Amino acid sequence: MKKFNPDRRKFLKLGLGLAGGSLILGINWSCSADPDSGSRGNSKDFSPNAWLRLDKMQGVTVIVAESEMGQGPFTLLPMMLADELEVGWKQVKVERAPATPVYGYQLTGGSGSIRKGWSTLREAGAVTKELLLTAGSIHLGVPKADCTATGGWIIHQPTGERVSYGELIDIAATLPIPHIAHLKEPDEFKIIGTPVPRLDTSDKISGRAKYGIDIRLPDMLYATITHCPVFGGKLKGFDATASKAIKGIVDVFSINEGVVVVAKDTWTAFKARQVLKIEWDFSDQELLSDESIIEHIKSVDSGKGKVIQNSGEDIGALSQTRTLESSYILPFQAHVAMEPMNCTARYKGNKLEVWAPTQSPTQAYNTAKDNTRNIAARTLDKIKSKVFGSHDENVEINTTFLGGGFGRRLQQDYVAEVVQIAKKTGKPVQLTWTRDEDVQHDFYHPFSIHELSGKIDARGMPIGWRQIVKGLGISTGNSGRIPYEIPNKLIKAVNIEGPIPTGPWRSVGHHYYTFATEHFLDELARAGSQDPLELRLKLLGSSPRLRNVIEVVADKGNWKDYLTGHRLLGVAARSSFGSHVAQIAEIELIDREYKIRKITCVLDCGLVINPDIAKAQMEGSIVFGLTAALKSKITLKQGRVEQSNFHDYPILTMRDTPEIEVFLVNSQEQPEGIGEPGVPTVAPAVANALLNATGSPVRSLPMAMSISSGQT
User: Fold this and answer.
1) 483 — alpha (psi -120 to 50), left (phi > 0) or beta?
2) Tens digit of pLDDT for each residue in 260-287?
3) Overall pTM surpassing 0.90 (yes/no)
4) Which residue, 36, 189, 278, 518, shows the most beta carbons closer than 10 Å to its own?
């Protein structure tokens, strides 16, 4: 076991109090002590800022400050705490944390839930167990050293006498914080590493789970909104005569972002929206198209870019080598979460209550607070610090389940809108966007163009790499780095500001950078007559974990068949969000169209908390990535998005989904991200299989899988 000192680490604010027969302990995410809330024996002075609540009926409630959108924090985080606390899984319940400063800056993204919670929640469980051991020894009148904790009981080992945690609450509330507590070693875990059932499954199956769109309040109205179809356009005026003639319509008015219809139910609001006559002013806006965007990006001077990696010589100076050049275009992509943007708000006197399916309750709070002062901006809040400012108790955020997020719900535009609408109507109101508004007014995956040059020597080994990436809203950070030890390399990125809103999209910059680098590496391998998988291994001298997943996927995906030509395979690998992933895609030709037969995936995410959830996240990531690789893209014409719904922005169906097999590396390293690392390698693995099959590289996404009449 590992010892740690709660006092020295300043991670524990022990607000111990008897609140309704419960023992409550609070631990701050940032491991900093909060101001004392008063006497621990006085429940009136206790602020409900806990991660853990024990009740006298042996129940254990874990408070989770991460948003649950299917990725599993409502199970994974309680597993960590429960294991250290020594309680049975059937005793554990989960509760969503309120959006208050004690939990720090609440934002779920970057595959960070496990990484943020790993130490904090385990320490919460360990300190509580230590406290209960002391209380148990007092209750039993025996030395603490003779006691052990298991299954929610303190047991006196010599005699077998026992007392439940619930019976010890009153004594524990009077005790000081333990000076020393112990964390388990991995071989001592009982819950961590096992496929225990998810805590949210029962509510979701039964319909008890409340998503944003499920919120119902007394006397509630229902609203929808029409935004300007051209980015940057303005409202000139509207005629709502036909809309107001529909039975059930309450009002039609404009707010900062568009024209709002308010009705007695959502469907009526949708119908009335369709007959609105709106006049927009596009006069000051450039009517962009895909062609003009590409032309503009290419015209931007790459000298303005940020250098991401630079070593060795300029590859133009390398002599007696072969040169290969390629370019790739990755388009805008929408998020199309299954639950469209929605939010509910109610004013009660001076208090504003919001029910939001959001990935960041803190940003939702800040947005709601700003909009009570009529400040509205359709931009991602700038995070200046990881703490709240002056907290206003009159603004309350209630975070619901999310019907998909993928980064879209890090933006809070729908929160800003509903707050304005509720203020205008004076009644509780639920705003629901139509699907076409959701598709046409997203914060899109960036549009990027990648220009690559490579040099290979007489042995066919890459010795030079130059990559210039330019795009709208692209990352210029570490996601652009490559792990391969090529002696002469330059990677530079140029982010171009533009009117098209962009934002985080599942796996963020790793998606577009990985496609370009992994596909170009296969082009270099082919030009140098190298086995692309073996080439990766040769170039990964200082990346043992990434090397390992490639070796494992070669075995599990039968890479030897690539060498014999018996199967059409492609490989890709990437380290992202602390985890390491390699995938092999197998394709086959059926009726002049290449079909994906199977994706084999190997994940090293460190210590696996719950193998079922880890595998499900990889499977979901692969389906998500295949949608972008094969099916969908956002295009612009005359300044507006052409797509509007699933008929012209299709997603992968069950019929199209290949066999997916996921293998988890047995690791004792600290657990890392699982929500996003499976996305980046899907598209390049498929593209590399097509390169193997046809000899032609894929120049843009989504990639064509059909053979044209001029091909064989």
Assistant:
1) alpha
2) 999 999 999 999 999 999 999 998 888 8
3) yes
4) 518
